[in-house]
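subagent[fold] <- orchestrator: predict structure for attached chain, return tokens only, no commentary.
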Amino acid sequence: ALSQLGSVYRLLANYRQSLAYLDRAILLGGLQPVFPRQAWRNYSILAQTLYSARTYVAAEIYGREALRLSIDELKDPATTYITQLNLGLIARRTRGEAEAMDLARASFNVIDGLPNDSAKSGMIAKALLHTAHLKRYAGNCPEALNDYDQAIQIYDQLATVYEKYEVYKGR
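subagent[fold] -> orchestrator:
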């Protein structure tokens, strides 16, 4: 519940309140055993909050810990893929465009091993959206438009309104 409140306050751009809730969540995790998924969630949300607050180095540290938990403890392709995408956006600020694209490409490798279904299609579309953003930030607009268009085609098939809005907004 604390990490969820932290996430909500991040979306409201109240980073101070968000960090206060996330700090409590992590502190409570240190006082009693926390399930790896909850620890991943806490670190992942904290990384996103720190990124939103433009504290990029700290965001990367928590994002890398979330990725480590996802790969080593959870062994869950879904958490690994989303953590790689989010860490890619963070790495763009801390390590540059090449590292950011490497993380985004790694998320596609995770997706490739999943069964073909609508969940996989949604994951591909989200990965295309993130790579399109990274390409646009790097000034490679023609390739970014191609990725945005592919994401739109997938979201049209899935009939997801919010995600389509995000793609059109980026495009």
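orchestrator: received. Logging for downstream: The first helix runs from residue 2 to 11. The chain is about 85% helix and 0% strand.
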